[in-house]
Write a structure and sequence with these properties.
The protein is α/β, with parallel strands linked by helices. It is built from eight helices and eight strands, in the order βαβαβαβαβαβαβαβα. Helix 2 packs parallel to helix 3. The protein is globular and about 55 Å long. It starts with 9 loop residues before the first strand and ends in a 6-residue tail after the last helix. 49% of the residues are buried.
């Protein structure tokens, strides 16, 4: 698959090989379970599988690279051997390097290389696609850093600074994908404002990945009796996918693929059927 010429928004399915991710921690920790889940996501229409071995939810404990690699590399290697496009969700350069050797085509770094200063070198040397997400602080501290005057302008500016650092380190412009980092050092109002102004991130000149799936800010649009349950936010997630696909984002990162894949198709049909009014 050509990562950057699909002609539509891609759907990235989440494969959490972790015991503590916020919505499905522990369900896919065993390699066999993770592989079965990943194959179901492919059957449901996932274009990319995003494999992660460390939770980044608020308050999550850090995992060293050795443990992270032990969790994910066998899964990555098997999925890549089956011909699937694999992304690896990691902030560790050692893990990123090993994942690329195992067949990963994308490194999805929620820290934008702030967590590991060696990450830009690894990305430059391997030549893989790299998701640089906006990030303030670690999972333990990020909620206390959700303070902005103009969240859209500040996130764009901070992402631009990361892009400059990456390219100074030898990462090519065409390798980089940007992610505004919904939920990372952002409260519900910040997340909604970013979504409302997603077109402003196009000024960065890179494809956009957006991950809204099941995040806490969606509880505000879910019936109150269900709002505390992350899985009950899948319908709201699909609605956001439709909006983002209508705006031409490169990809959405989701836990439940089928609704978002259908949402992408709906948005594409609407866009393809536009014509000047007579």
């Amino acid at each position: 698959m050509d990562l950057f010429d699909a002609g539509r928004t891609l759907v990235m399915g989440v494969v959490n090989v972790t015991p503590d991710s916020f919505s499905d921690g522990g369900r896919w920790l065993a390699p066999e379970a993770a592989l079965a889940h990943a194959r179901r996501l492919i059957d449901d229409g996932a274009d990319i599988l995003d494999v992660g071995g460390e939770s980044t939810r608020p308050g999550a404990r850090r995992v060293d690279a050795a443990e992270e690699c032990d969790r994910i590399l066998g899964v990555v290697r098997e999925l890549a051997a089956e011909g699937h496009t694999v992304s690896v969700d990691t902030v560790n350069a050692v893990t990123a390097h090993a994942a690329v050797a195992a067949g990963a085509r994308i490194i999805n770094d929620v820290s934008g290389s702030l967590a590991d200063p060696d990450m830009p070198r690894v990305i430059a040397e391997t030549g893989v696609a790299y998701v640089a997400q906006h990030w303030r602080g670690t999972p333990e501290t990020m909620n206390s850093l959700a303070t902005y005057g103009d969240v859209v302008a500040e996130v764009v500016a901070e992402l631009r600074g990361r892009l400059d650092t990456l390219q100074e380190a030898g990462v090519r412009h065409e390798q980089i994908i940007c992610d505004p980092g919904l939920g990372f050092a952002k409260d519900a109002g910040h997340n909604w404002r970013i979504l409302a102004h997603i077109d402003e991130f196009a000024a960065l000149g890179h494809p956009l990945l957006v991950g809204a799936s099941r995040k806490r800010f969606l509880a505000g649009v879910v019936p109150p009796a269900l709002a505390a349950q992350p899985l009950e936010r899948d319908h709201a997630t699909a609605a956001i996918t439709a909006l983002l696909a209508h705006h031409g984002v490169w990809a959405v990162r989701v836990h439940e693929v089928r609704p978002s894949r259908d949402a992408v198709r709906v948005a594409r049909m609407v866009l393809e059927n536009r014509r000047p009014r007579e």
